[in-house]
């Protein structure tokens, strides 16, 4: 089961998203603002984040940038959900590090499909990343100079010198 963080200052929006996700089997953690979202992320166990752009204090874009700047969270799938459909705002969200942008109002099926895709791409990326790490480690091991075997004659010479 995946756990999804919903960060939105509107309680009704948080509740509707939480109900929809809960019905599809997701565990949900909610936060009314960026500091609350960061606290939830610090506790761990979050698999994806749904962020509203317009929140008091730090915006969803600010929060997205902070998540991307944290090495422990930088690969977290992030979807921005907002009623703001201006092209500049959507572009800004993607430049801030969002993986997807969903405009309100939206169909629940579209949300579920996009969220599922983000989570599966993230899992596939982690598998590829682990495989790439193993391959890099194996290549590094092979590139190290191999120790030259010590012959019996060298061993005797070393004993006599010592």
Can you tell me about this structure?
The chain has 162 residues and is α/β, with parallel strands linked by helices. It has a single domain (3-143), classed as Response regulator (Rossmann fold). The protein has helices at residues 11-23, 34-43, 60-69, 87-95, 108-143, 152-161; strands at 3-7, 27-31, 48-51, 78-82, 100-103. It has a five-stranded parallel beta sheet with strand order 2-1-3-4-5, with helices on both faces. Helix 3 links the parallel strand 3 (48-51) and strand 4. The radius of gyration is 24 Å and the shape is elongated. The model has no long low-confidence stretch (mean pLDDT 84). Residues 3-119 form the Response regulatory domain. Keywords: Phosphoprotein. Pfam families: Response_reg.
């Amino acid at each position: 089961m995946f756990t999804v963080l919903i960060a939105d200052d509107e309680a009704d929006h948080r509740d509707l998203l939480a109900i929809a996700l809960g019905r599809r089997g997701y565990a949900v953690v909610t936060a009314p603002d960026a500091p609350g979202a960061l606290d939830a992320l610090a506790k761990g166990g979050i698999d994806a984040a749904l962020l509203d752009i317009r929140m008091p204090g730090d915006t969803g874009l600010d929060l997205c940038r902070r998540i991307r700047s944290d090495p422990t969270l930088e690969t977290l799938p992030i979807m921005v959900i907002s009623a703001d459909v201006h092209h500049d705002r959507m572009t800004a969200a993607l430049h801030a590090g969002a993986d997807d942008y969903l405009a309100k109002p939206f169909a629940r099926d579209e949300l579920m499909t996009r969220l599922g895709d983000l989570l599966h791409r993230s899992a596939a990326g982690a598998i590829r990343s682990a495989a790439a790490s193993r391959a890099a480690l194996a290549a590094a091991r092979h590139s190290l100079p191999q120790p030259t075997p010590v012959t019996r004659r060298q061993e005797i010479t070393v004993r006599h010198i010592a």
